[in-house]
Amino acid sequence: MSARTLLVVGSGPGIGRAVTTLFASKRYTNVVLVARRAESLAAEKAAIEHAVGPQVNVRTYAVDITDLAALGKALDDADAAIGKPECVFFNAARVLPSAFFEHDVKEIEYDLKITVSALYVLAQRYIPHLVSLAKAGADPDSEHSSSAKPGFLVTSSALPLEPIPQLFALSLVKAAQRNLVQSLHMAYAPEGVHVGVINVAGAVSPDDLERNPANIAARAWDWFEGLRGFEVVI
Ligand SMILES: NC(=O)c1ccc[n+]([C@@H]2O[C@H](COP(=O)([O-])OP(=O)(O)OC[C@H]3O[C@@H](n4cnc5c(N)ncnc54)[C@H](OP(=O)(O)O)[C@@H]3O)[C@@H](O)[C@H]2O)c1
Q1: Of 143, 148, 171, 195, which residue is least crowded by CB atoms under 10 Å?
Q2: Which of 16, 24, 8 is nearest to 63 (CA)?
Q3: Domain range for residue 59?
Q4: What are the distances in angstroms from CA 173 to CA 33, 81, 101, 203?
Q5: Ligand 1 pocket test target in 45, 60, 204 with most atoms within 8 Å of CB
C-alpha cells in the first residue's frame, strides 16, 4: 500500500495545526502544508513533527493561493515528490473587518479568490483522483482495496447562514464557498468521496469548552472517520 498523504491548504497555528496533527497521527504518513509565510510554515512543520513523531514526513510550500499559477506549480512538485493526496483539507481564509462602504471591491475579489477560486482549482485537480481512489477501494484486486478514505474537507463557519454586517465580505465569500462545497458533495459523495464542511459556528478560543482547536479537531476526525454527511457543526 502506498503512503497516505494529507494536503492542508491554509496551514496555521489554530484550527489548521490541531486538525493536521490529529489527522496525521490517525492516518497520514505524508503531510503537505501550504500557506503564504515561510517562517510560519517552518513553525507548523516543527509543531506537527513534534506532536506526531518521526513517522510523519512534512513538506511545506510558501504560496499565496490567490496566485493560481504558483499554487499549481507547488502542487505539481508535491504530487511528483510524494503522490497525490488521499485527503484535501482546505482551511485558508482572511478574517478582516469590512465596513459598509469603506471596503474596496478589490478586497472582496481577493477574498473570493482565496475561498472560492483556489478551492475550485483544487477540486478540479484532485476530485477525479479521489473518485478513482474510491472506485479502487471497491475493487478487491486493487492495491487500495477497502483502504482508501478519499476526503475533501473545508473549514466553514456560521457566516453563510448568519452574516455579520461588520464582516459582510467574509460572510458573502463563505456563503459562496459553502454553496460550492454543497454542489461538490451532491455530485461526488455518491461516488465515494467524503466532501463536506467543518462548520465552526462561532469564535475559536483555547478557553472555550467546545470551540477550542483540540476539540474542533477531535469532532472533525470523528465525523470524517464515521462518514457522517455533509457537515459537522461545532
Ligand atoms: N478563528 C476563528 O475564530 C474561526 C471561527 C470560525 C471559522 N473559522 C475558519 O477557520 C479557518 C482558519 O482557522 P484559524 O482561524 O484557526 O486559522 P489557522 O488554522 O491558524 O490558519 C489559517 C492559515 O491560512 C493561511 N492563509 C490565509 N490566507 C491565505 C492565502 N491567501 N494563501 C495561503 N494561505 C493563506 C494563513 O497563513 P499565512 O498568513 O502564512 O498565509 C493562516 O495562518 C478559516 O476558514 C476560518 O474562516 C475560524
Answers
A1: 143
A2: 8
A3: 5-233
A4: 23, 33, 17, 18
A5: 204
Q: Give the bridge partners for 8, in sequence order.
A: 33, 89
Q: Is the pLDDT of residue 109 over 80?
A: yes
The alpha carbons of the chain give a radius of gyration, in whole angstroms, of 17
Domain count, the chain: 1
pLDDT per residue as tens digits for the range 86-105: 999 999 999 999 999 999 99
Rounded to 5 degrees, what angle do the CA atoms 155, 61, 98 make?
A: 45
Q: How far apart are CA 189 and CA 184, in angstroms?
A: 8
How far apart, in whole angstroms, are the C-alpha atoms of residue 216 and residue 201? 11
Q: How remote is the CA of residue 30 from the centroid of ligand 1, in Å?
A: 21
